[in-house]
Amino acid sequence: DVSGGTFTISNHGVSGSLLAAPIIISQPQSAILGIGKTEKRVVVREVGGVDTIQIRPMAYVSLTIDHRVVDGHQTNTWLSRFVDVLENWPQS
């Protein structure tokens, strides 16, 4: 079911790892997104024009790409948007 894929998601956080730089092993893979362990962290967020201190679940993400296949600028744009969507996910 997964043969021929071009993008992999690696959840190394399940083993407690905060950050990793996964490598592309299988061709025709062109990118791999690594997701680290989720931890509560203190962050500063602006609410109504005022800085507030909040506790949020946070995780490091890393994106490894094959520059022969994709451009670094495109992947930086994608990764920035990915992080923005996660950070601004509607709360229920």
Task: Characterise the protein shown here.
The mean pLDDT is 88. A hairpin with a 2-residue loop joins strand 3 (39-47) and strand 4. This protein has a single domain, classed as Chloramphenicol acetyltransferase-like domain (Chloramphenicol Acetyltransferase, 2-Layer Sandwich), CATH 3.30.559.10. The chain has 1 helix and 5 strands, in the order E-E-E-E-E-H. The termini are far apart. It is α+β, with helices and mostly antiparallel strands and 92 residues long. It has a 3-stranded mixed sheet, with helices on one face. 4% of the residues are buried.
Short account of what is shown:
This protein is α+β, with helices and mostly antiparallel strands and 92 residues long. 17% of the residues lie in helices and 35% in strands.
CATH architecture: 2-Layer Sandwich
**C-alpha Rg (nearest Å):** 16 Å
- H/E topology pattern: EEEEEH
Main sheet specs: 3 strands, mixed
Helix count?
1
How are the strands of the largest sheet arranged? 1-2-5
Q: Strand share of the residues?
A: 25-35%
Q: What's the domain count?
A: 1
Low-confidence stretches: none
Helix content class: 10-25%
Mean pLDDT: 88
CATH topology: Chloramphenicol Acetyltransferase
Q: In terms of topology, how is this protein built?
A:
Elements: E1 7-10, E2 31-35, E3 39-47, E4 50-58, E5 61-65, H1 72-87
Parallel strand pairs: 1-2
Antiparallel strand pairs: 2-5, 3-4
